[in-house]
């Protein structure tokens, strides 16, 4: 609403921008899975979808690998956004409002090269010919990858883990074992601490280590030096 009224003001449709009340909110926590479970789900996705369209599995794999990209941004990638020579993808219209790139691993670059290339204006994640209920060449729907993720989870008896937390958020939590929060935040390209802290929490082992310190008795020599003089 603020943006809309600012636009009206800039175009001289209104004389001044009205005052808006401050809205407070709290970001919800999301359920994640460990890396082993995440990889099992991704392999199940590959098993059940590869014959339909290998890009279903590839899209979900990328969400778990390149955690700086959101599902909506992923689906909006076009053939022309992919630079095979540089091994990178330009993310069109990222939420952060600044240029964002995905720097491809060699294995993913080889996978892309194995697919038939289309016109630059075509979406990379598009339906192939001969697929019932989907028009060839059209972009994946917003819930298309989630549908396959959910089916794979059901096959494995896993409940309550949506696509985004199960890929991106689970990956970030696993990375905490090897990288600092600052490094992970830099790679995630989050613009605010709140968005980053939504899923990046203190690890249980870190908390246990802190709690263990509360059980440690630290002897301070001056306490014992004061003892005798007080008794006297």
Describe this structure as you would to a colleague:
The chain is mainly alpha-helical. It has a domain at 35-72 and 124-202. Helices cover 47% and strands 3% of the residues. The protein has eleven helices and three strands. The protein has helices at residues 2-10, 35-49, 54-65, 71-75, 106-114, 144-156, 163-175, 181-188, 193-197, 204-213, 221-231, and strands spanning 82-83, 88-90, 101-103. Strands 1-2-3 form a three-stranded antiparallel sheet, with no helix packed on it. A hairpin with a 4-residue loop joins strand 1 (82-83) and strand 2. Helix 2 (35-49) packs across helix 6, helix 3 crosses helix 6 and helix 3 (54-65) packs across helix 7. The longest helix is centred in the N-terminal third of the chain and has 15 residues, at 35-49. The protein is globular, with a radius of gyration of 25 Å. It starts with a helix and ends with a helix. Mean pLDDT is 80; it is low at 223-232.
Task: Provide the descriptors you would attach to this structure in a database record.
three-stranded antiparallel beta sheet; mainly alpha; disordered C terminus; 232 residues
In short:
By secondary structure, the chain is mostly helical. The protein has helices at residues 2-10, 35-49, 54-65, 71-75, 106-114, 144-156, 163-175, 181-188, 193-197, 204-213, 221-231; strands spanning 82-83, 88-90, 101-103. The chain is built from 11 helices and 3 strands.
């Amino acid at each position: 609403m603020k943006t809309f009224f600012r636009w009206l003001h800039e175009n001289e449709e209104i004389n001044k921008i009205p005052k808006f009340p401050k809205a407070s909110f709290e970001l919800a926590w999301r359920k994640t899975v460990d890396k082993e479970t995440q990889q099992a789900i991704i392999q199940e996705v590959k098993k059940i979808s590869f014959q339909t369209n290998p890009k279903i599995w590839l899209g979900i794999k990328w969400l778990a690998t390149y955690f700086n990209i959101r599902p909506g941004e992923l689906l909006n990638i076009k053939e022309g956004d992919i630079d095979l020579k540089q091994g990178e993808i330009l993310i069109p219209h990222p939420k952060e409002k600044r240029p964002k790139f995905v720097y491809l691993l060699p294995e993913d670059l080889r996978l892309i090269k194995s697919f038939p290339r289309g016109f630059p204006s075509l979406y990379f994640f598009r339906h192939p010919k001969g697929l019932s209920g989907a028009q060839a060449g059209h972009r994946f729907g917003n819930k298309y990858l989630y549908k396959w993720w959910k089916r794979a989870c059901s096959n494995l008896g896993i409940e309550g883990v949506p696509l985004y937390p199960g890929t991106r958020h689970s990956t970030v939590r696993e990375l905490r074992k090897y990288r600092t929060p600052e490094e992970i935040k830099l790679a995630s390209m989050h613009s605010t601490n709140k968005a980053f802290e939504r899923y990046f929490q203190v690890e249980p082992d870190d908390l246990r280590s802190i709690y263990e310190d509360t059980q440690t008795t630290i002897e301070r020599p001056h306490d014992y030096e004061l003892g005798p003089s007080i008794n006297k």
